[in-house]
Amino acid sequence: MSSDVLLEEFEVLESIYPTELTKISDTEIRIEVEPEDIQEGQESVKLILNVKYTSGYPDTLPELTAEPLEGEMEEEELVDLLNGLKTLGGENVGMAMTFTLVSHLREHLAELVRSRAEKVRKLAAENERLELEAEEAKTRGTPVTRESFLTWKVKFDKEMAAKRAKEQEEKLRNLTPKEREEHKKLQGRLTGKQIFERSRDWAEDESLEEGGISVDVTQYERVHQGEEENEGDRVYFSDSD
């Protein structure tokens, strides 16, 4: 490695990076690298690029390492960045390449920052969409179909039957043996409402058997009663008179 070539490159780098570059030795430097064209509100990321020049430089690649200075960097991200630098360095063998490597690193750091910001934006948009759908589902409710109603009805009837059985059990538990017997007898009797409903059902069944003609039995009874009352008011004449 020609010292003159390296000294000349150091002078150029120091003029470009007056505050970012630190000379460690005659063959080693470190440069603070941050993304180019960083936008307001985007995550800040800054790396330190360590460059150790080999004896064969610029015909051989320098030794490159990187470490985070600001912001978080995953190990996989650092490895990808360094692999990109080594690939680019291989394309520039024989020429002073440090400035090219730093420019490449700044560009790819900017891409990394933009990619992270896009992921955050998409995640926020997806969360907003899910929250909106959940809110709409609350106001819209669940559409009721015949199948869903029947399923609900079966479940509801079972729950109500279980509830009535439990209430009946609790009620019987508080009765004396004699009161339980009386209660069972009363349970076996039909209420007035039940008798009326059964009579109505029988009347409907008879009307259907007669060809669908509805007969009002009460009207018939009132007419028949009226005829019997009129029988008492009639005058009969005998032929013998």
From TrEMBL:
<protein>
    <submittedName>
        <fullName>RWD-domain-containing protein</fullName>
    </submittedName>
</protein>
